[in-house]
Automatic annotation (TrEMBL):
Family indicated by similarity: Belongs to the aldehyde dehydrogenase family.
Protein name: Aldehyde dehydrogenase
Annotated ranges, domain Aldehyde dehydrogenase: 16-450
Record key words, sorted: Oxidoreductase
Statement: the UniProt record of this protein carries the keyword Isomerase: no
Active site: 222
SUPFAM superfamilies: ALDH-like
Keyword hit for Oxidoreductase: yes
Length: 475
């Protein structure tokens, strides 16, 4: 049963400058560095989630009509798994290691000492407002940093709840929340941070990177794009269609790694459409609007944009919508083909549904002549965040792996790589900079500092100092 009440608060956020200087003060105290203190804060983060699951579910329901099952799986469960994985491995990751030295520098010893960066800003989007805020936070705390969190103003119930809970679970101010939209984020970005993790659109990603450049602050940018699917696995048509539909229509398609469009050969299109129709009915029932498991579009602006995308397409599954509750059915569409020679998907495509990231429950099927042509389509544009391949041919799977570039490749499924805590999660090119999750978060928020100690005697450095009678000696 979906929760029915949402938590709201009228508490005011502290201004950006106060949040940053407060977090810097806590970092400066040194209290975030010991491993025991890092583990204590990770356990506090865990408790923040487990002790408030009902309130979190209610907020997600209010913001996105996200049902309890989906909230547990994609927000609460993944984040807890990330925290537990981090707690399990932290001691090993944080060990300082011996650093290799060339013979010419001996006698000397070097160690690689991991040290925290300082104050990290985490800016999150609205689509997974818990996971995409708290999952990076686990890595930030594990690495011994303090954090300022900026939840999305477009998920207001979740944002308010987090702003209310964080001071209770981090009373020393090691983690602070600044709520708000563009003006508040702009004010935050004017401050100096030691790292910024941004998840959102490429357009705002560029704004964040420009602001970060002012302070030479390193960034992790988790962006979006059009993640393609290739399908030719006739032997597993129904299973493949079910997995494609699940990956696409979870959270009403508002997932950065959702399949954006499916490419297949023209002869396979009718069977794939039928299988997708059956899969949608199996997963969300004959009328997804009446169930608790199918989400809603975040706001009217996005709703109007998505309904607009249906215009000029042939809607073969779904298509029904209701603005009063921002409901748009899981929809599959066919698009009239582009002119001869132009790529089916990309900046010159015939229809906007094939030009812009869809980020909603509209799935175009794009007929292409062959897997090689699909590779050409993918390579004709920005590198995607994810690529999904459903093929029974090892040769075809290799073709996509070796001849395209994307944040990740998944064969036979969609979305699942985001739940693999040991794998780096991130984009490449226009889909992002850097990666996180598990040890990759810890690395992203840690500086690996070489500490070298060379005894003053014997004075072997004498060989590197002038006068060079026989040439420099440190080779
Ligand atoms: P967005 O870029 O509009 O907003 C993200 C954050 O930036 C929000 O907190 C918002 O308040 C802030 N923001 C918005 N405009 C700003 C401005 N002018 N200056 C400063 N800050 C600003 O993104 P969104 O609509 O919340 O999310 C959708 C996008 O995020 C999609 O492109 C999607 O693919 C991407 N996304 C990526 C991932 C990933 O892990 N790579 C995950 C989820 C979403």
């Amino acid at each position: 049963m979906a929760p029915t009440t949402a938590t709201t608060t009228t508490e005011l956020s502290p201004p950006a400058r106060a949040a940053v200087s407060g977090a810097r003060r806590v970092f400066g105290s040194g209290d975030t560095r010991p491993l025991a203190a890092r583990a204590r804060r990770l356990r506090a983060l865990r408790a923040l989630i487990t002790e408030n699951e009902a309130a979190i579910e209610a907020a997600l329901w209010s913001d996105l009509h996200k049902g309890s099952g989906e909230a547990q799986l994609t927000e609460i469960g993944v984040t807890l798994a990330e925290i537990d994985h981090t707690l399990r491995h932290l001691r090993r990751w944080a060990r300082s290691r011996r650093g290799p030295l060339p013979l010419a520098l001996l006698p000397a010893r070097a160690r690689l000492v991991p040290e925290p960066l300082g104050v990290v800003l985490v800016i999150a989007p609205w689509n997974y407002p818990v996971q995409l805020l708290l999952d990076p936070l686990a890595g930030v705390l594990a690495a011994g940093n303090t954090a300022v969190l900026k939840p999305s103003e477009l998920a207001p119930a979740t944002s308010a709840l987090i702003a209310r809970l964080v001071p209770r679970y981090f009373p020393d101010g090691a983690v602070r929340v600044v709520e708000g939209g563009v003006p508040e984020t702009t004010e935050l970005l004017a401050q100096r941070f030691d790292h910024i993790v941004f998840t959102g659109s490429g357009t705002v990603g560029r704004i964040v990177m420009r602001a970060a450049a002012e302070h030479l602050t390193p960034v992790t940018l988790e962006l979006g794009g059009k993640s393609p699917v290739w399908f030719d696995d006739d032997a597993h048509l129904r299973q493949a269609a079910r997995r494609i539909a699940w990956a696409k229509f979870t959270n009403a398609g508002q997932t950065c790694i959702a399949p954006d469009y499916v490419m297949t050969t023209p002869d396979r299109v009718p069977a794939l459409v039928d299988a997708l129709k059956e899969a949608v009915a199996d997963l969300w029932g004959p009328d997804p609007r009446t169930g608790d498991d199918y989400g809603r579009i975040v706001d009217e602006r996005q709703f109007d944009r998505l309904v607009g995308l249906l215009e000029g397409t042939e809607v073969v599954v779904g298509g029904d919508h209701d603005r009063s509750e921002r409901y748009l059915a899981p929809s599959v569409v066919l698009v009239p083909s582009s002119g001869e020679g132009s790529l089916a998907v990309g900046p010159d495509a015939a229809h906007p549904v094939l030009r812009d990231e869809i980020f909603g429950p509209v799935l175009p099927i794009v007929p292409v002549a062959s897997a090689e042509e699909a590779v050409r389509v993918i390579n004709g544009w920005d590198k995607p965040l994810a690529l999904y391949v459903f093929s029974s041919s090892a040769r075809t799977r290799r073709l996509f792996e070796q001849r395209t570039s994307s944040g990740a490749v998944v064969h036979g499924a969609g979305l699942v790589h985001a739940a693999a805590t040991g794998l780096p999660f991130g984009g490449v090119g226009a889909s992002g900079i850097g990666a996180y999750h598990g040890v990759h978060s810890w690395r992203a928020f840690t500086h690996l500092k070489p500490v070298l100690r060379k005894p003053l005697t014997p004075d072997t450095l004498r060989l590197a100092q002038p006068p060079f009678t026989d040439g420099p000696g440190l080779r």
